[in-house]
Amino acid sequence: MSVVKINAITVPKDKQERFEERFKGRAGAVESTPGFEWFELLRPVEGTDQYLVYTRWESEEAYRVWESGQDFARAHEGGGSELAPAASNSSHLWSYEVIESAAPDRP
Ligand code: HEM
């Protein structure tokens, strides 16, 4: 069963541009991580001011291996505290199990 791990992160208005730029220049290592299935950076438009970093993994174990490994550490070097001050307050990890999913049925 796939699992979804979402980093929900509040970025102050004056840091949002820089935050998005950082993601444009992100490490790009997650793509080649075993068990990785999907990543999306979601910019808040209405109803919330939290960015969501959506990731989907083949298993909990696959996520844990990535999160505790060097690629995660490298991808986050210098990225966090400056852009999301008091990150422990402004960032939350949400975990889900995928119980249904669908893709477009196109020929
Ligand atoms: C305080 C916690 C966190 C902050 C402030 C943060 C912020 C950032 C930033 C700014 C980047 C862009 C790269 C850089 O500039 O360093 C990044 C990359 C990334 N973050 Fe986080 N992050 C945090 C925790 C997490 C967690 C828990 C996840 C798990 C879902 C996650 C998923 C990712 C992914 C998938 C990338 C792209 C890595 C790649 O390209 O290989 N982050 N993060």
Overall SS class: alpha+beta
The average pLDDT score comes to 90
Q: In CATH terms, what is the fold-level topology?
A: Alpha-Beta Plaits
State the domain count.
Answer: 1
Shape: globular
Contiguous helical run count: 5
CATH class designation: Alpha Beta
How is the biggest beta sheet arranged? 4 strands, antiparallel
- As a percent range, the share of strand residues is 25-35%
Low-confidence stretches: none
CATH architecture: 2-Layer Sandwich
From the alpha carbons, calculate the radius of gyration and give it in angstroms.
Answer: 15 Å
Tally the beta strands. Answer: 4
In helices, the fraction of residues equals: 25-40%
The secondary-structure element order is EHEEHHHHE
- Associated small molecules: protoporphyrin IX containing FE
| CA(first)-CA(last) distance | 26 Å
Q: Taking strands numbered 1, 2, ... along the chain, how are they ordered across the largest sheet?
A: 2-3-1-4
Features:
binds protoporphyrin IX containing FE, about 110 residues, ABM_dom, Heme-degrading_MO, Antibiotic biosynthesis monooxygenase, 4-stranded antiparallel sheet, monooxygenase activity
Descriptive report:
This protein has 107 residues and is an alpha+beta fold. It has one domain (3-97): Alpha-Beta Plaits, CATH 3.30.70.100. The mean pLDDT is 90. The protein has helices spanning 16-24, 60-67, 70-75, 80-83, 87-90; strands spanning 3-10, 36-42, 50-57, 91-97. The two termini are 26 Å apart. Bound molecules: protoporphyrin IX containing FE. Residues 5, 7, 9, 19, 22-23, 26-30, 39, 53, 55, 75-76, 79-80, 83-84, 87, 91, 93 line the site of protoporphyrin IX containing FE. One of its GO terms (molecular function) is monooxygenase activity.
